[in-house]
Amino acid sequence: MSPELQKYWDSVRENPNDFTGWTYLLQYVEQEIECQLQEAGVVAENDIILAREAFEAFFATYPYCYGYWKKYADLEKRNDNMSEAEQVYERGLQSIPLSVDLWMHFISFYKSKYGQDPAAKEDIRRVYERAITAGGTEFRSDKLWDSYITWETEDKNLRQITLIYDRLLTVPTQLYSHHFENFKTHVTNNHPKEFLTLDEFMKLRAEVVKEIKAEKEATENSVLDGEEAAPGTAETPAVDDVPPGEEDPSPSPAPGETVNLLGLDQNEVQAIKDVSAFYQDDENEMQKVREKVIELREKVHRLTEEEVSKRWNYEEGIRRPYFHVKPLEKSQLKNWKEYLEWEIATGSHERTIILFERCMIACALYEDMWVMYAKFMEPHSLEGVRNIFQRAGRIHLPTKPNLHLQWSAFEEKHGNYEAALEILTHLENAVPGLTSVAVRTLGIYVSVREKFCTARVFWVKNF
Predict the structure, then answer these.
(1) Dihedral, CA atoms, 16, 17, 21, 25, nearest 10 degrees?
(2) Angle value at C-alpha 163, between 158 and 165, nearest 5 degrees
(3) DSSP letter at 1?
(4) Which candidate, 291, 346, 283, 286, places its Cα nearest to that of 314?
(5) C-alpha 60: how far from its chain's center?
(6) 226 pLDDT tier (thresholds 50, 70, 90)
């Protein structure tokens, strides 16, 4: 290790919460590797190991920095360590699965690695599906959906595109209206048989044929009842357009007669007329099918529009949706709390979880937000609560007393006394001398003794 690198390491080891110090360390190892690549075209294995150690230590404290996960993956990629780069992306996505930007970078990497292989299309589709499942309900996930649709469009997978739109149109996103307009273009520019499933196509066509038949019968009945024909449907009398005394060299055809300019016999002329009529009828049917397709999705679109309008002001208030060590403005924190309270009261459990996870990225350094999340989760999943406290206490806020005291109280409440004491011990080691820790530790021992004594008396009396 060079003296310069040692100094950067000493700085962050002395103060692990010095985010700027970490960025200097990572910049240094990146520059060292870049210089070796430019000068020699290869990097010493030891220097790659040193760079990995720096990134790994950084992510132990700041796992929500999606941009640095990409830098780490790019570093491996530049050294032709493609498998290692893929693993870095996978670990980053485990840490921050809602990051649409990180998913986009990973998809781009995956295509560059496997995209030339025709057999890899299903693998790429699976990656897109993973991305949509993890981050597709995020309010600002529009570019992820657009990327998926564009990729399927390249291979003209029209039915698959329709299925994607059917999911997308139900999700309240920032560009919901843009997606619906694109869907209508998709419908208008293609034959329904090509972009609908066979079941839906047959169902809608049957409805259209039935409607056309009913309209035709109604029109015929109107004529039989003596009603006037619609404008343009009555036969037009012949008009003299040749001077008197002269014969018309090319007389107009009688009504219903077709001019034969190609010398075709009558059967051939009739066949052409039949084909033309078929395609005209088919196009009329298909246009009506298209209208039905759009009409059905428009109902979904209106419901989504309502959901977007309910959330719009809250979303507009989110100015920094990503992680940063700089404090958030009070108005930002207030907006997050109000948004969460509203979603808890009116939204679904799934959407509330998504919103909390989004909030934890931006508010990772605020213990009251983590505690709010844990309290919401407790009626639903005790393991979910433990996961929330572990992420907060072991990664983001290892020295926050209130968070650890509430975490310990949660474990004690559910009879996990050993875990409750371990949490307090961890806090005591991180922040020695806290009176509140000593008091809570004593309280747990008293609780354990009382429960043990009660159980012992019960056993003696009954057995």
Answers:
(1) 50
(2) 95
(3) -
(4) 346
(5) 26
(6) low
Rounded CA separation 136/143 (Å)? 10
**Confidence (pTM):** 0.82
In the DSSP assignment, the letter for residue 97 is T
Q: Residues with Cβ < 8 Å from 70, sequence gap 6 or more?
A: 92, 102, 105
Could you tell me which of 427, 418, 423, 422 has the C-alpha nearest to residue 447?
418
The DSSP code for 325 is S
pLDDT at 424: 93
Assigned token pair, 276: 């033309």
Number of other residues whose CB lies within 10 A of the CB of residue 437: 21
Report CA 403 to chain centroid distance, whole Å.
31
Nearest to 21 by CA among 45, 52, 57, 46: 57
The pLDDT assigned to 225 comes to 61
Place of tokens 């679109």: 301
What local confidence, expressed as pLDDT, does residue 34 receive? 84
Q: Do 291 and 283 meet the contact criterion of CB atoms below 8 Å apart?
A: no
291-336 tens-digit pLDDT: 999 999 999 999 999 999 999 999 999 999 999 999 999 999 999 9
Residue carrying structure tokens 């360390």: 25
pLDDT (tens digit per residue) in 55-105: 999 999 999 999 999 999 999 998 889 999 999 999 999 999 999 999 999
Residues whose CB falls within 8 Å of the CB of residue 31, separated by 6 or more in sequence, listed in order: none
